[in-house]
Amino acid sequence: MKVTDILGIREQNIASIINAVRFKSGISKKQIAEETELSVATVSNLCNDLAARNILIESKNDGLSVGRTPSVYTFNVERYCVLAINLQLRNVMYLAITNFRNEIILEKEYKYSDNAGVEEIMHEARVHYEEDLKPGLRDDAVIIGVGVAVSAIYDTSHSKLVCCAIPVFEEKDLKKITEKEFGLTAYIDNEANLCAIAANASEAEYEDIVYIHASEGVGTGIIQHGRLLQGHNGYAGEISHMPIGRPDRKCKVCGRYGCIESDLSIDGFLLSYFGNNRGKREERWKEFLEAVEAKKEKALKVTEETGTYLGRLVSVLIYLFDPQVVYIGGNIPVLYPYMKESMMKEVRGRCVLWDENSIAKILPDLTSNERIIIGISERICSKWLPY
């Protein structure tokens, strides 16, 4: 037990040092010790070990001392990388590689067949990675993990996906399938959680965040006091079947009426505008966006009405979580200028304590695809240890 405790302390100290150095260039042992609250002796021993293993890059900085030139350290960020796979849109596979500072260094988008199963999709992802992305890495690069974004809940108790907006993933153990295909530790989460993680990592002024992501499905990522809220099974923040949508609209997933996902998802907008038209989905979405931009009456009416339902959702989340900021990402931000008035009318009417200066900012986010990749990178890099 004592040995395990000692090893645990060492791992915790290494993690603290890596996180202290990760986003900085040329930091001394003394500065690391001050930031991590570890002793200089502990920092010195561990930095020497990490430098010997080419995890830290050691150099000299004449500007830090008038006497002996001290060593400074920089994390070898380009050597340690993450493979991120975004599968939150139907038939679309987006692959990216990030360095240890969450910077996207390689990326590419692909299509996959309607008939592809999960195993086939992940096999295609590995082939695309090996043929198109891997050759662009430096020779000594190490992929420390692979993360996958899905429009679903990852049930952490049973290691399966549930409430999937893309049916092929329903009840699948995507973590096991991914790890078998790539031979790497895999991290699976929904797009809203990943966007929330990314926002928390990049915007230090916000420690309480609600991130609404609406595309294939509708989900929320909740950051409270700087930590992702997940719950016992990973269901925390699940709002897709919250009955605050159109009361006469039947949910194609649960079979009940009024689910908010039935309004705010891509299919929800298309149903409201086109009815049960079964034309090509991608073309219909483009046509709808063009109709909104052209200010066609029916398209504006759809966005205005849907803005009211978005306002209901925002109001509920403000009351439940008291965030500093509510981000709205996914496919909605391009429509946000046309939805904002009806959304804000609903928020102001329902949130009797509403005060834009003290309760919550509401901000559209046009960078959610990038956020998903950064969220995967942050989640894997922040937990990584050089075993």
In one word, what is the shape?
Answer: globular
What's the Cα radius of gyration? 23 Å
Residue share in helix: 40-55%
Instruction: For the largest sheet, list the strands in their spatial order.
Output: 6-5-4-7-10
User: In the CATH hierarchy, what is the class of the largest domain?
Assistant: Alpha Beta
- Indicate the low-confidence ranges by residue numbers: none
Largest sheet composition:
5 strands, mixed
CATH hierarchy: architecture of the largest domain: 2-Layer Sandwich
Query: Based on helices, strands and strand pairing, what is the structural class?
Result: alpha/beta
CATH superfamily membership of the largest domain, which one? ATPase, nucleotide binding domain
Number of strands: 15
Tally of helical segments: 12
Overall mean pLDDT stands at 92
Strand content: 15-25%
SSE order:
HEHHEEEEEHEEEHEHEEEHHHHEHEH
CATH-defined fold name of the largest domain: Nucleotidyltransferase, domain 5
Taking the alpha carbons of the first and last residues, their distance comes to 20 Å
How many separate domains make up the residues? 3
